[in-house]
Amino acid sequence: MKRLTVLLAAAILAAGCASDRSSILKVYNWSDYIDESAIPEFEQWYQEQTGESVKVIYQTFDINETMLSKIEKGHEDYDVVCPSDYIIERMLASDLLLPIGRDFGDTPNYIDDNLSPYIRSCFDKIDGKGKNANDYAVGYMWGTTGILYNPKYVSDEEASTWDVIRNPKFADKIFIKDSPRDVYSQIILYLKQKELAEGSVTMDGLMNYTSDADIDAVEQYMKEVSALAAGWEADFGKDQMVQERGWVNLTWSGDAVWAIDEAQEAGVELKYVCPREGATVWFDGWVIPKYAQNPKAARYWINFLSRPDIVIRNVEEVGYVSTSGAPEILEAFTDDSFEPIDLTYFFGEAADSVCANPVLYPDKSVIDNCTMEHDWGENTGKLIEMWSRVKGDNANSLTYIILAVAVLAIVGAIVAARRKKSSRRRKGSRR
After folding, report:
1. pLDDT attached to residue 144
2. What is the Cα–Cα distance from 65 to 284, expressed in whole angstroms?
3. Strands 174-177 and 279-289
4. Which of 267, 372, 262, 376 has its CA nearest to residue 319?
5. What is the mean pLDDT of residues 357-365?
6. Cα(388)–Cα(48) distance, rounded to whole angstroms?
7. Is 360 left (phi over 0), alpha (psi -120 to 50) or beta?
8. How many CB atoms lie within 10 A of CB 355?
9. Are the CB atoms for 101 and 299 separated by under 8 Å?
10. Which of 360, 302, 307, 313 lies closest to 114, judged by CA?
11. What would the pLDDT profile of 283-322 be if each residue is shown by its tens digit?
């Protein structure tokens, strides 16, 4: 009996130790969305700052809803995750987030010291049902949605409108992001140009236009596009553009940067533009879920990733743009090969004439004509159903060919990766 009592006590003690997560940080992030060498550096830095040890358990996801489902339904105890803007909004509304405190003792507060005022103002617009998103989320990466095009076949004027995706001149050369929320937002901006000009609606207001009539209008428009589109893509569109199999691609700025760089090496010119009717900006940000068991280490993780040197390394690794407005970031990404543009909205008054890549950092005039998307809430199902009807049950033959080529390319890439580590920057789908 005494032996049994000792064994039970040991088991209880072991169970208690197993549940103690003060030395473990569980991170859930997008695939290929960090310089992974920074992870062990964080562990060392955390020890230096707090005198406590921590081990990072790092996991990845590819779809916002996958991450959300694990937290919402499974009560997964991730300590820090990186959802997109509309999911942050949904998590706030569902009371799934903990506030991110800013008390770091003697450690500098890199979050508030470096976050761009533009990003802060955008997070102010997130509908948190009475909660300010800036208290619950810290921006990580951001960008725009626009048109990637080949100027050999598509003029600048033709590409300057969203209606380029409905131009029969480019039939079977058009690729559309398989992202109903991003596509819907651009098309509603296009369809409501008269109302915008009259001032009866605003761009911000249009992001909440989810009536049956509005959804039907976008659906009818996109069915016309569907008859011309070569394919709906989550990732392979940029490759098709580089290979000149596509001439027009409704896509994200991060994918556009990758495609433009790759095309240049292949002797192909590609351009990217946010059409004149207006466009949307998107954000990913770090949050601490309600069921987190180590919120202290989570806060330090967010602070560490806001440190300028770490920011620069992550941007160079993944190819997207940080939400940091630190002077070091401005200096690092100033490039005299580009024309000067106005970046005062992002970096402050001194940045009124900066030579920078306008795809990464759009000019103020472009940003002034942009808005941000919102969560559809209970209407999300209607959006998904509409998108299914637009795409239809049958893909065209070109889509099947492209998918087959993509599969073969992936297999080849895996084989090649085993032989030689690739140094090309991130090309995965963000949203």
Report:
1. 98
2. 14
3. unpaired
4. 262
5. 97
6. 52
7. alpha
8. 13
9. yes
10. 307
11. 999 999 999 999 999 999 999 999 999 999 999 999 899 9
Which two three-digit tokens encode residue 216?
Answer: 């039907």
Q: What would the mean pLDDT of 257-270 be, rounded to a whole number?
A: 96
Distances in whole angstroms, Cα of residue 19 to Cα of each of 24, 80, 299: 10, 18, 20
CA 250 from chain centre, in angstroms, equals 15
Q: Are 222 and 162 in contact (CB under 8 A)?
A: no
Which regions of 290-377 does DSSP assign to beta strands (E)?
321-322, 340-341, 354-355, 370-372
CA pair distance 391, 23, nearest whole angstrom: 48
> In 3D, which of 222, 227, 126 has the Cα closest to residue 178?
222
Report the alpha-carbon distance of residue 328 to residue 156 in Å, rounded. Answer: 34
Total residues found in the chain within this entry:
431
- List domains and CATH numbers for the chain: 22-135+283-333 (3.40.190.10), 144-278+369-419 (3.40.190.10)
Task: Answer yes or no: is pLDDT of 14 > 70.
Answer: no
Q: Sign (positive/negative) of CA torsion 49, 52, 57, 63?
A: negative
The DSSP code sequence of 188-229 is HHHHTHHHHHHTSS-HHHHTT---HHHHHHHHHHHHHHHTTE
Separation between Cα atoms, residue 133 and residue 360, nearest integer Å: 24
Single-letter amino acid code for the residue at 148: L
How many other C-beta atoms lie within 10 A of the C-beta of residue 92?
23
Beta-strand pair 55-61/24-30: parallel
Looking at the DSSP assignment, which residues form a beta bridge with residue 115?
A: 324
